[in-house]
């Protein structure tokens, strides 16, 4: 029997059992095509190669080399563009397949990583604000703004970050088909967290950077 790299998880998407008093509120994964369009930028890349092919064909025709040469050169660029877009779609599909977003009563967990499985743990106490962005295709993204002094690595967490927020990266639950339900669960958890009494500050600091987890043996 073959064992998958995530089969050892006691709860799918979570690195360990939930501690007493913590409950799982919502789980989900990104949809691969919206992730490809908005994170991998497949459509702009395809448009770029299409424009490049048209430009190359026009240059060849203007140079007097004939329509066959123009079609040949343009087709080569279109083939290259299709290959690049295919690779980006494959990357988005793999990312969506291995990613699991979890919202509990105490934290948000992003399990991700194609070649190197990782888990990003975000305690709700360190979340300053959350915002929901809905898209015309019906999916949505939930971005998490952390309290001052807390940071995550943009490129370490990509594509599960809010685009172009490099100075203050925001972890993001992207391309969610049920974004409204996830947002409602997160809102309830944050409101409950605000109602809890605040413990005095200590010297203990909980890192927000996802640490690599060893993959299970095949």
Describe the structure in your own words.
With 218 residues, this protein is α+β, with helices and mostly antiparallel strands. It folds into two domains: 24-30 and 104-196, PH-domain like (Roll), CATH 2.30.29; 37-95. 37% of the residues lie in helices and 21% in strands. It has five helices and eight strands. It has a five-stranded antiparallel sheet with strand order 1-2-3-4-8. The radius of gyration is 22 Å and the shape is elongated.
Keywords:
single chain, 218 residues, alpha+beta, PH-domain like, 2 domains, five-stranded antiparallel sheet, three-stranded antiparallel sheet, elongated
List the helices and strands and how they pair.
Layout: E1 24-28, H1 32-38, H2 42-62, H3 67-98, E2 100-104, E3 107-112, E4 118-123, E5 127-134, E6 140-146, H4 154-157, E7 171-176, H5 179-195, E8 211-212
Antiparallel strand pairs: 1-2, 2-3, 3-4, 4-8, 5-6, 6-7
Helix pairs in contact: 1-3, 2-3
Residue runs with pLDDT of under 50 for 5 or more positions? 199-218
Mean of pLDDT: 85
Separation of termini? Answer: 9 Å
Order of helices and strands: EHHHEEEEEHEHE
> Might you state the CATH topology name of the largest domain?
PH-domain like
Query: Overall 3D geometry?
Result: elongated
Task: Report on the biggest sheet.
Answer: 5 strands, antiparallel
Strand order, main sheet: write it out. 1-2-3-4-8
Pairing-aware structural class of the strands and helices? alpha+beta
| CATH architecture verdict of the largest domain | Roll
Radius of gyration: 22 Å
Domain count: 2
Q: For this structure, what is the CATH class of the largest domain?
A: Mainly Beta
Instruction: Please count the helical segments.
Output: 5
Q: Percent of residues in beta strands?
A: 15-25%
Instruction: Tell me how many strands there are.
Output: 8
Helix content: 25-40%
